[in-house]
Design a protein that fits this description.
Blueprint: E1 2-7, H1 14-22, H2 30-35, E2 42-47, E3 53-58, H3 66-73, E4 78-84, H4 91-102, E5 107-113, H5 120-132, E6 140-143, H6 152-168, H7 180-184, E7 190-199, E8 203-210, E9 214-216, E10 220-223, E11 230-239, E12 242-244, E13 246-248, E14 251-258, E15 270-272, E16 278-287, E17 301-306, E18 309-321, E19 324-337, E20 342-346, E21 355-362, H8 373-381, H9 390-397, E22 399-401, H10 402-407, E23 421-423, H11 425-445, E24 452-453, H12 454-460, H13 466-473, E25 498-499, E26 510-513, E27 516-519, H14 529-536, H15 542-549, H16 559-574, H17 582-588, H18 592-600, E28 605-608, E29 611-613, H19 617-626, E30 632-633, H20 634-640, H21 645-657, E31 661-664, E32 668-671
Parallel strand pairs: 1-3, 1-4, 4-5, 5-6
Antiparallel strand pairs: 2-3, 7-8, 7-15, 8-14, 9-13, 10-11, 10-15, 11-12, 11-14, 16-19, 16-21, 17-18, 17-20, 18-19, 20-21, 22-23, 24-27, 25-26, 26-27, 28-29, 30-32, 31-32
Helix pairs in contact: 12-13, 20-21
The protein binds guanosine-5'-triphosphate and magnesium ion.
């Protein structure tokens, strides 16, 4: 199917022409027929020579009904522009053409009607020249008389060529097998309603021009019922009076809806696919060059038309750049929009022609807070192509979810940086640089802190979720050499991940350990996760390796703690398993937090909350226990280690956990074979 709208001045013969081509009556109302004038949209269709249907949306030409005209033209990709041979180029000729141009309609033809009443030649010349200045460019022209039938065959042949051009550009409901990229991508449904009525026994029926996408029987859609949306289900559909199971745009469709009270759907509402559109009341647009220089005359409010919808739009002029005007619009009613959508702005009160086209650049713009924000927005938006890409929107928003970009109409997404988050590459690189600084600053405030909680880092970097912090800690694939056959690829962070923070400069490395971020000691040669696993595979060194892997330099301890720890180590030099008791620790001012910090720094081996030995005491214990007959009792171990039960029991349990010893039934243990 193809859909074409008529356009042209009142009484120039649009409806008569549609009637002559289709044999159908486009003026549906008795009042229209009585007055001989179109008031509202009319619908009719004809068959092309190849059997495909061509549907007409016939619009009124009278200036009072411009909103109806725009509702008909809005979602249609082609126009049949009508000028009467005896009428000449008239005000609504100019106004309708301005609308066609504002909506960037690229396909159409000129029909000079009433050719039996005057020489069509002069009008054709004027009209072609006017049309050539618009988005339609150069079009074919046909002179006809609906009274004598002259030119109608020629017109049918011209319409067939127009249809072929529409099919070639993917602007038809027919397959375009020659252009695979057009037939592969199925755009989301946004059906602008232009009529709604009740059919006895069937309920609510709406009709509209489906510009793209496929509607199927049984499909669930959302009705954009101001100010919200309401789910509805399609329980029957027709295309040009024929029942169908599914219809692909461009097409005229009638949908029987379930789930909506009669009288609720109205012209200007849309049926949209859930999750695929941004229902927005605020947007940044670029006006077509025609508006340049005129922005000072703009009233604070204009009417915005898109599809069959019309709403008030409050303007905030952002500025001008290279002849294009940038404006932020605040809409009275939210509308379902995509970046790249074409909208029309109109000043109904203006004396002259006041119709401007605009491209939606950002359907969810960030607030304009500080001074100079508008100028900055213009500088940014001026670099955006039409339609904008994911990269453009990300440069502005820095971080966006997949669902947000999809709802903005972006089809080609960059790979996510984490879960369903996409980032602007430059912003992401600066976050990677900022993270170690934030962690270092946090640790500087509390030297005994275990690390920086993920949530604190999320807040410090002003990020929406902790997932992003984890992603910042994983290696940047761009800065890490590709894995070789010996080193397995590093996966996403699971637990206790440490990784190099990549460098343009060299950033300190940050590791996540048990939900905390820590600076890793030496920013030396890259230490992969695989390497850490290898080191840890030696059972005897596992415990100390785990400590060393994330240890901070001893110098990072407050001097008071460092010197108290040194005293403990001096005591232990004489009796390596005589861990200081509670009283001694209190005397030295060492509490559980300080001991934990010293253990993290690799200065102490912490076998229980308040029981510490010198680093390597686990290995020394293993050496001593190896000399005992195997298996041995706790008491034998305690005597061999020359210590008390207070130390021996947690030490043996520590050695069990480190898989140095093995616990057997009946208070027995033995060293695990190495
Ligand atoms: N002689 C002659 N009269 C025509 C021709 N086409 C249309 N008319 C007459 O022109 C008048 C207006 O025609 P319409 O088809 O109603 O014009 P319209 O463009 O649809 O008008 P609106 O919908 O009100 O904008 C009618 O009286 C038609 O009979 C033609 O080719 N020759
Ligand atoms: Mg008419």
């Amino acid at each position: 199917m193809y859909v074409v709208a008529t356009a042209g001045h009142v009484d120039h013969g649009k409806s008569t022409l549609v009637r002559a081509l289709t044999g159908m009556e486009p003026d549906r109302w008795a009042e229209e027929r009585r007055r001989g004038m179109t008031i509202d949209l009319g619908y009719a269709w004809m068959a092309l020579p190849d059997g495909e249907k061509l549907a007409f949306v016939d619009v009124p030409g009278h200036e009072r009904f411009v909103p109806n005209m725009l509702a008909g033209l809005g979602p249609v990709p082609a126009v049949l522009f009508v000028v009467a041979a005896d009428g000449g180029w008239m005000p609504q000729s100019a106004e309708h053409l301005a609308a066609v141009d504002a909506l960037a309609v690229r396909h159409g033809l000129l029909v000079v009607t009433r050719a039996d009443l005057a020489d069509p030649e002069p009008v054709t010349r004027v009209a072609l020249a006017e049309i050539a200045r618009t988005s339609l460019g150069s079009v074919e022209a046909v002179a006809v008389s609906a009274v004598t039938g002259a030119g109608l065959d020629d017109l049918r042949a011209t319409l067939a060529r127009l249809a072929a051009a529409l099919r070639g550009s993917g602007m038809s409901g027919t397959d375009a097998p020659d252009i695979p990229e057009i037939s592969q991508y199925v755009p989301p449904v946004r059906l602008w309603i232009d009529r709604s009525f009740t059919v006895r026994g069937a309920g609510t029926v709406v009709t509209g021009t489906l510009p793209a996408g496929t509607v199927a029987n049984g499909q669930e859609l959302l009705l954009t019922r101001r100010p919200d949306v309401q789910p509805v289900r399609v329980r029957g559909l027709q295309a040009l009076g024929e029942p169908a199971e599914r219809v692909t745009g461009v097409a005229r469709v009638a949908l029987n809806l379930r789930g909506v009270p009669t009288g609720v759907p109205q012209r200007g509402m849309a049926l949209i696919e859930p999750g695929r559109w941004t229902l927005t009341a605020e947007l940044d647009v670029r006006l077509t060059p025609r508006a340049a220089g005129l922005q000072d005359k703009f009233p604070p409010e204009l009417l915005l038309h898109v599809g069959s919808a019309r709403t008030q739009a409050r303007l905030r002029l952002l500025g001008e750049d290279s002849g294009a005007v940038y404006v932020r619009l605040r809409l009275r009613d939210p509308l379902p929009l995509h970046a790249g959508d074409r909208v029309l702005l109109r000043d109904p009160g203006a004396a002259g022609l006041a119709i401007y086209g605009a491209t939606v650049l950002d359907p969810a713009p960030p607030p304009l807070g500080r001074r100079g924000a508008a100028a900055a927005a213009v500088r940014e938006l001026a670099t955006w192509p039409d339609p904008p890409s994911a990269a453009d929107l990300l440069r502005r928003h820095r971080l966006l979810r997949t669902a947000t970009l999809t709802a903005m109409g972006i089809t080609e997404l960059p790979p996510p940086v984490a879960a369903d988050w996409h980032a602007d590459p430059a912003h992401w690189a600066s976050l990677r640089a900022e993270l170690p600084t934030a962690v270092a600053a946090f640790m500087a405030k509390d030297e005994l802190a275990v690390g920086m909680p993920l949530d604190a880092a999320r807040a410090a970097l002003n990020l929406p979720t902790r997932d992003l912090i984890a992603a910042l800690v994983t290696p940047d694939p761009a800065s890490v050499p590709p894995p070789t056959s010996e080193s397995p690829p590093t996966g996403p962070p699971t637990s206790d991940v440490e990784a190099a923070v990549p460098a343009r400069g060299r950033y300190p490395r940050v590791a996540i350990d048990g939900g905390y971020l820590r600076i890793v000691a030496e920013p030396g040669p890259s230490r992969s996760k695989a390497g850490a696993t290898e080191r840890a595979s030696s059972a005897q060194t596992q415990a100390s390796a785990a400590v060393a892997a994330t240890s901070a330099p001893a110098a990072s301890l407050p001097p008071r703690v460092a010197s108290a720890v040194q005293t403990v180590l001096n005591d232990l030099a004489a009796a390596p398993f005589a861990a200081p008791d509670g009283e001694r620790l209190r005397e030295l001012g060492l509490d559980a937090r300080a001991l934990a910090a010293a253990a993290r720094a690799g200065l102490l081996l912490r076998i229980a909350d308040l029981i510490v030995l010198a680093p390597g005491a686990d290995k020394e214990a293993a050496r001593v226990l190896a000399e005992l007959p195997q298996p041995f009792t706790t008491s034998q171990a305690r005597q061999a280690l020359a210590t008390s039960r207070r130390v021996a029991i947690p030490l043996l349990e520590y050695l069990d956990r480190a898989r140095i010893t093995e616990r057997l039934p009946g208070d027995l243990r033995r060293l695990r074979p190495r």
